[in-house]
Structures are given as C-alpha cells and as structure tokens.
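Give me the fold.
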Amino acid sequence: MTLPVPTSLEPMLAQLRGEIPEGEDWVYEPKWDGFRCLAFRDGDQVDLQSKAGQPLGRYFPEIVEAVRALPVPQCVLDGEIAVPIDGALSFDDLLQRIHPAESRVKKLAAETPALYLVFDLLVDEKGRSLLEEPWKARRAALEKFAAKNFADGGRIRLSPSTHDVAAARRWLRASGGALDGVIAKRADVEYRSGDRTGMQKIKFLRTADCVVGGFRYASKGNIVGSLLLGLYSPEGTLEHVGFCSSLTAAQKKELTPKLEAIVKEPGFTGRAPGGPSRWSTERTGEWKPLDTKLVVEVQYDHFSQDRFRHGTKFLRWRPDKAPRQCTLDQVKQESGVAPLALV
C-alpha cells in the first residue's frame, strides 16, 4: 500500500473510568458492542485490522467489499464492526464469525451481515494523513467524507457524537442493548496511536480484559473448576490477579480439553497463584500453567492490593484482543473509583 500511515498502525486506546468527564474540551460517542477495526483502502486493496493488529478481512468479507466500494481512491477509517440482531448488537453472533472454515464465514456473512460503524478518519480520500489533526478537525472531515461516500442503509455508517453530557448519560443508561457504554474524547488532541491519555471509556459495569494464565480443576471430576487470571505489569511480567469460576457446568466441560491442550510453563511470569504446587496430588490446590493465548472479559466489584478482592464473573471471550494489551492500568486507574450512579 502507498498510504501515508502503515497498516501496522495501533488504534488510539481508552482509559476505563467510573464517571463521564465534563467540560468544553470533551466530546462523547457511543461505545458499540463489537470489534474495534482499522480499515485501510488503497485502490482495490483493502485491509481490516483488529485492535490486536490481527487481520479481520477473511472473517468479514462483506465489510471488505463495502470499503472497496467506497467511491474514493484511498482512505483509512477507524470504527467498530458489529452484528445487528433484532434491533440490538449481538456479540455472540459476532464471535461466530471468527471461524476457520471459509464456507461457514460466507454463510454467516450472508445470513447475519455485519456493520462498520465509523468514528474517525485517519487518512482522507486525497491520501492526506490526519493523525496530527485534533479530534474536532478529524470529525469535521469525517462528517463531510461520510455525507459524500456512505450509502444510506449501507454496511458502513457514521457513528454519532455529541458535546451534550446529558445525551451521553442517556447513552450510558441504554447500555446492554446496542451499546456497551460511552466513549469520551478530548476534542483538542491529535490521534494518539497506542496511547490512552486522550480517550476514556465508561461502562455500566466494571469490567477488565484478563489473560488466562492457568486453571484449577474442580474438587470433583476431571473438569475445570476456575480460570486463573493475569494482567501484565509495566515491567512486562504477567501477574496473577484473581480467578473466575462462574462458568456453567456445560461451559467447563467443553473448555477442559481446550485448556489441557495448551498447558505450558510458566503461565505467570510474575506473582503466581498460591497453594500447593501444580504437581501436587491434591487436585483442589493444583493449578496448571497455560500458554498465554486466551483473553477473557470479566466483571468485578473491587480491585485492591493488586488483585480482585472477590471472584469475578465471566462475561465473554475476547479473541480480538492481544494478551499483551491486558495490562494492570485497566484496574489501577479504576481502583477506588465508584461506578457512575445511574437513576
């Protein structure tokens, strides 16, 4: 590609906060329940890239074709891929698209086509990089771009934005359907690739994306009892921060052979789970280290002394996130901050 930005460009990231920030420098957008995606277009070539830097094009051929069909020679867009089902966005149906069989992907693309909800323009149709422009300038350019190039009712749509904090609170109250919360952005900052300082995310629930660094067997039977969760420290070590045992019996049974297939030392490279060694014959204390491939999103109530105070609630798997993106700053910044009270 001859674009002025590399296809390895990292998206701008967000800090998790408990309250919506206010002030004239802040603008607000819906946080859609989907996969973050950068779309690169150069002539007939289209690349879709996940937040983790992985290619998404083979899983969403209808979005590739929609980007290719835009009446422009070049562009780079930032947005969210989502699958609408019965008026809401279905993350479960979205996950079904990450499938190794091309025939299965094509079938789902026809039956439950995805949308690409665009909220930023990084390279315009003239091949000009907008990365150094403040959000307000990029947004103005995006709105003009969308008005000229996005078809009504098409696969690519403009995501709304507002300066009205009351509207943002209404969006937050709507979380759980099409929305996963609210994004707050500084209108006066440039596009900060790979950085969290200019953008915040506010969710109705406190959640964190964690690496599954190991597991323990249940006290009875040869099935998984709990997942052992890890987050990366600033020094790059994977620190054990808690556990999740809220999976159903059916989920645990299905998951057991998958985890046993990726048992690999060391699992945690920093603080490790306590209790007997994994070689102990006492199964209730034994834990198995895993190859750090799996990322899970969990809900929690309080984080202190470098760990979740209580067990967490399993929400969903996150194949779109790289394990190295699961860092302690997700919860360090949230620690001691009460969730936004909604009435």
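The longest helix spans residues 135-149.
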